[in-house]
Amino acid sequence: MNNYIQKETKMLTRNSRISIIVIRTFTLVVGFCLFTTYISAQNSADIPLPKNLEQGYPRLYITNSEKKDLQKTIKKEAWAKDVLAGLHDEVDEHVERHVKDPEWMVSRLQMYWKTKATNVYINGQDYSHADGEAPVPTVRFSGSRDYTTLYGKPKLKDILPYMDDPRGLYLPNKSKGGQPFEWVEQSKTGRIINSINDEITGLARDAAFLYWLENDEHFAKFSYDVFHTYMQGMSYRGEPIDLLNGHIQTLVGFTNFQVIHEGILREIAILYDFLHPYIEANHPEHIAMYDATIKRWTDLVIKNGVPQNNWNLHQANIILKAAMVLQDDENYEDKKGREYYINYILNVTSARQWSLSKFIDYGYDESNGVWNECPSYSLGVTSSLTEFIRDFDNTFNHNILPYTPVMSKAVKMMPQYLFPNNQIVAFGDSNYGPISTEAIEDMIRIAQKNEDKDLEKEFTGLYRLFAKDKEESAQNRKRHSKGISSFFASKPLVLNPNYKEHNIEDYITQTFNAPSVSWHVQRMGKGKDGLMVSLNGSLGNHMHANGINMELYGKGFVQGADP
Q1: What are phi and psi of 182, to 5 degrees?
Q2: DSSP code of 548?
Q3: H helix or E strand, kind and range, residue 209
Q4: Strand, coil or helix: what is 370?
Q5: Residue 177: which residues within 8 A CB-CB, separation 6 or more?
Q6: Can you give the residue ranges of every domain in the chain?
Q7: Which residues contact 144 (CB under 8 A, 6 or more apart)?
Q8: For residues 466 and 43, what is the distance between their CA atoms, to the nearest angstrom?
Q9: What is the pLDDT of residues 150-175, one digit of tens each?
């Protein structure tokens, strides 16, 4: 009997093992098939890369072949003359001084001038110290993640040259009468270091553009001296180390506590783009170092951050500009060049940087076009995305709007956020105010560039509903930025007179429900005669944590929780 039981037990054990093997094999096969299907689906949904990439410089906003057209525009158009004059007003005095005193501006960069530190250490959200020594001065890290500080940013003329002192920074104390200058520990200076470097590199960027436009080498020399000092110093800097080993370690960039604030990389890329011909002719030996530094910097922006909200998009905008000034993949040993980084932001998903497709699919409700954050953030993400798509199209002559079909719906739903007085609801981290027309304008510009008449007609009708001056706002802008991007992205929008204003009822419904942000709205009437209730819970990002929130509108007034 015992022998029989032992025999049966062995048979059962053997059969069980066979069953387990079969089940595991089946699971692996099914899993492999599903994975293959997923990868295939991912590949089939990839946004195609632009073809025939511009090989020369500049290439971000404009190419050399388009230079004469820009010069004609400046001669012909008053707005373009104003932009050019504004650039000269900001830059000329510094360029003229640089001829006689080439150290004046460079010495005001915030660097580790004496210590030449390579390693930066932080205590959570505040600067701690730096060590290591490079053969050249290196770029100084920010004082704190928090903007708040008792100290002010000094004017350029008041910055101590080559400031690198164990006492910290020499800054005006805003809390004291007369704002006397004092030495202050770096951790108490907020983001003043970044602000100073932003200002100086911004001047160098504009000087690079003016050199390219007008061929005055004095502008190139000024721009190059700032650029080279900064980039050479950055080439030796390491990723900051959080002594607390906390979450901030996953957010830091080379210059700032948050990679989304590494906007100086974007401006450095624009500078490099316009200055590249001068560098090729005069300092070609440094190009490999500049490119390697831009790549390391870009890799860190990809490595750190937050993927599932607006950070992802801010990072993508920085990455795109940096990628554009690199050479093609084949020119680098690691094969990580322009195509690699462009494809990365469009189609590759990693831990802290999602592909554009995944980011959009995750955040937008396809059924209604709502982004899964509170109104102010939602409207900001939509505007940033349309700007990204427009910028991508202008740069590469490659329209990716058809690969992001939810964007049309997202722009058209924006009026749903409005009370009858045309102010947006303000649940979560939001503020009352009008909706911005920037996303609508972007859609019109994209449509005009690609000769999509139906799209242009659709969004022109929507735009006219919110243009402050319905007859003239399309032809004239009240003010123009002094930035060089104004020549390319902010030209006055010209509306087709055949496309008339739409009805607001085409975009605002009496009842609207957005489950992704736990929001429900009911309304009737217009203006002061209108009535509305906006009710929401805590689901969604940047929302109230207290569970439920209600805003009531009547007789032109809103009653709601303090936003």
Answers
A1: -145, 155
A2: E
A3: helix 192-214
A4: coil
A5: none
A6: 67-363, 365-505
A7: 125, 126, 127, 187, 188, 189, 190, 191, 257
A8: 40
A9: 999 999 999 999 999 999 999 999 99
